[in-house]
Amino acid sequence: MYRALLRNGSADVSGLAQLTNLSPGALRRVVAVLEDEGLVTRLTGRRPRFVATSPHVAIGAIAARREEELARARQSVEVLASETRHRSGSPPEELIEVVTGQSALGRSFMQLNLTARHDVRAFVRPPFAADVSQPPVTQDTALRRGVHARSVYDVSAFEIPGLLEAARKLVRAGEQARVAAVPIKLVIVDSKIAVLPLTSDDQHAAHSAVVVHQSTLLEALISLFETVWRSASPLRWTGENLPDTDARLSCFDAEILSLLSAGLKDETVARQLGLSLRTLQRRLREVFESFGARTRFQAGFAVARHGVLDESRTDLTPPGDTRG
Cα(52)–Cα(72) distance, rounded to whole angstroms? Predict the structure, then answer.
């Protein structure tokens, strides 16, 4: 109704009914809500007419009220937390929660990302309950707030079509990403709370999870993450400009090498970059020859020695027609 009034100007009740196809009862309810929100003004006259308030004024006022509500909610955290400070410690049953059901799990992960203030650490591995071709909205929001995010992706995760591109978008937004053999799914927020699946079925998404609050168990999970992080391989994108001595290596070929160096299989790299396996292996042979290498080990050593792999590369457009 608000958008209809913005498009058409003022209108009386009958005009609103034609614009919105609402029944008289529904029309009255909607008008009341819009008036309460300050989105619609009632004009005086023999037949009441309604006009939309300017979005710059109305939406700005609503946003200001919401921000005030958020500020009050954040202030209440300390007040409510003070109620438990007199206790010597949290009862064991309050340190661990069990969450069951896909919808409840989704809400738990969303709340974790929305409440993050400092850092988020995550182990990422299939199966996934949601579409992974798009980065999580809540994680994008956390990164925009300046939250420091680190993720370790299991090698098998990149068997999922579109995940590499989704990971790339998060890295562009500020996430640090590495690749390793990940033992479990895990999300840790602000070193205060963690969520991990209760089951480890590799074929089906988890339907239950454990929420772990500050405890020795949480400290062990943090230690596990840091141990895996230190041994994981960076998920890198090659730089725009390669050293002059290595102009023989195109940026796209360097991209292939950087993904292989992270531990991805030939088949996975080919699938994620839109190449056939034959095309990928042919390009690798050409790279080997350009460095005078007969084996992958020799080629890897030469690439590392010349330092041609760089984390800033984001353009993965293959030169020419690369589909074999």
Answer: 30
In angstroms, the CA 24 to CA 226 distance is: 61
Does residue 68 have a pLDDT over 80?
yes
Sign of CA pseudo-dihedral 60, 77, 92, 221: positive
- Inform me whether the pLDDT recorded for 239 exceeds 60: no
- Here the tokens at position 139 are 């994680």
Q: How far apart are the C-alpha atoms of 204 and 5, rounded to whole Å?
A: 48
- Residue 279's SS3 state is helix
Cβ proximity of 121 and 95 under 8 Å: no
Can you say whether the dihedral through the CA atoms of 31, 63, 148, 162 is positive or negative? positive
Task: Give how far the C-alpha of residue 305 lies from the chain's centroid of Cα atoms, to the nearest Å.
Answer: 34
Q: Which of 44-48, 62-66, 128-132, 305-309 is modeled with the greatest confidence? A: 62-66
Question: From CA 68, how far away is CA 80, in angstroms rounded?
Answer: 18
3-class DSSP assignment, residue 247? coil
Tell whether the model's pLDDT for residue 162 goes beyond 80. no
Angle at 109 between CA 196 and CA 200, to 5 degrees: 30
What does the alpha-carbon distance between residue 70 and residue 47 come to, in Å, rounded to a whole number? 40
d(CA 11, CA 64): 28
- Spatial distance between the Cα atoms of 28 and 259, rounded to a whole number of angstroms: 60
Which residue, chain included where needed, has tokens 């009220």?
Answer: 65
How far apart are alpha carbons 108 and 189 in whole angstroms? 12
In the predicted structure, residue 243 carries a pLDDT above the cut 50? no
Say if residue 148 is exposed, middle or buried (CB neighbours under 10 Å; 0-12, 13-18, 19+): middle
Averaged pLDDT of the chain: 76
State what percent of residues in the chain have pLDDT above 70.
Answer: 73
Higher pLDDT, 267 or 301: 267
pLDDT in tens, 77-99: 777 777 765 665 556 666 888 88
Q: How far apart are CA 316 and CA 4, in angstroms?
A: 44
What 3-state class would DSSP assign to 109? helix
